[in-house]
Amino acid sequence: MTSATAPPRNGLVSRSGLLLGVDIGTSSSKGVLVRPDGTLVASAQRAHTTSTPQPGWFEHDAESVWWADFRSLARELLAALPAGDALAAVGVSGIGPCLLPVDEKGTPVRPAILYGVDTRAGAEIAEQNERYGPDEIIRRCGSPLTSQAIGPKLAWLRRHEPDAYRATRRWYMASSYLVHRLTGRYILDHHSASQCTPLYDLAARTWMQERCEEIAPGLRWPELVWPSEVVGAVSREAEALTGLPAGTPVVAGTVDAWAEAAGVGVAAPGDLMLMYGTTMFLVGIVPEPLTSPRLWGTAGAFPGTYCLAAGMATSGAVTGWLRDLTGTSYEQLTAEAAALPPGAEGLLMLPYFAGERTPLFDPDARGLVHGLTLRHGRGHLYRAALEATAYGVRHNLAAMTEAGAAAERLVAVGGGARALWTRIVSDVTGREQHLPRHTIGAAYGDAFLAAVGAGLAEPGDIAHWNPTVEVVAPEATASTVYDRLYGLYLDLYPATREAAHALARLN
Predict the structure, then answer these.
(1) Quick check: 340 and 379 in contact, CB under 8 A?
(2) Rg of the Cα trace of the chain?
(3) How much is the pLDDT for 8?
């Protein structure tokens, strides 16, 4: 590991001391303080709400959610800073890709439009596919044009909220907005940019200016950097608002899933991260750019790296819905589900409660529970929900294999990486999952990226920061049962798709 007295990088003097990492999530934000050897010193969390003003719309107020959460977490964690220790650097991440339009002064002109769960821009997706060609979009951008992309969201804003668009001069994602508030810089990391389809050329690693001007004329575009690159220092103004010492280096940061992948050592070709959270995300490292009409091909967290990624629209969101619906704790639901056999005694669920992202890319898909009888109770429903997530993971792993991405080592992370859930996923997929020492989320990866940027660590040091402490292996008998049920799962969506789409149109 690089010592604390190593030569500084990026022209800023880094301090020996602790790393602050903060991640803005869909339903909560988390922060950590970490020593340069990976030791977790303190953590904090702040819950927030997501606004859904219309069906298919998901928004955050940047000031009362993103910036307020950061300020609160920063002050709480600074209070936990051990006496005699200093802060070495700050790293941030957040949900993405998101669209936050701001005016000339940097003031948001409307709430941020969130990532692929926000499906308002369907017409703009169709128009841009027609304009640029779906195959050409995948070839140049790495991903198909879906509700995940920034290009259609910009076009939607320009068309449906012209006053807001006329006031817009720049735009941010969650991580880049925090960097702006801390340093004044207008940047975006290459990974986040690679999710701005159809505006970023993956091979050339640059904005496609002609498309940028056609889709969103008159806007200024952020400078492109890498997630671990120091892009500035905490300003005096930010110090007054956050308590962070002015002059503390700040790295660019990135989308939460990629920060988390960096923080659990998913960095070599064949590595794949399963992120258990409100949604399920899969990030696989590949040796070269790979594309698939059913997945996302992106830039990685470190220079010269590439990823093939997948994401389900729900996972923990469904288990949370069941908890709220039944008024029962997670602990009780888990105990009841664990007492049941594989297959939940004849229940099969489609987890498309918010549409589905990969590998279907169907915003009008809908959730379904099949096989219900009067003997089924809340424990059956909860187990069926966990199994539905596992079937979705298997479906996405199959799509990755078909695209040429060999997932050889699976690493399970996130707040949902609990014993029953991970065991079910291993049984359904037939794959081992490695659980690292820390599965606390992207904030830990933010701290690691900050350490790399500040010259206190090298990318390979993550193996010492966060080693594997447990391996979850599939159980052969359960896997045999799930193999049969998985075939039924694959049949159920096409058999009910037309009815689901008809019901979606009634919303």
Answers:
(1) yes
(2) 22
(3) 38
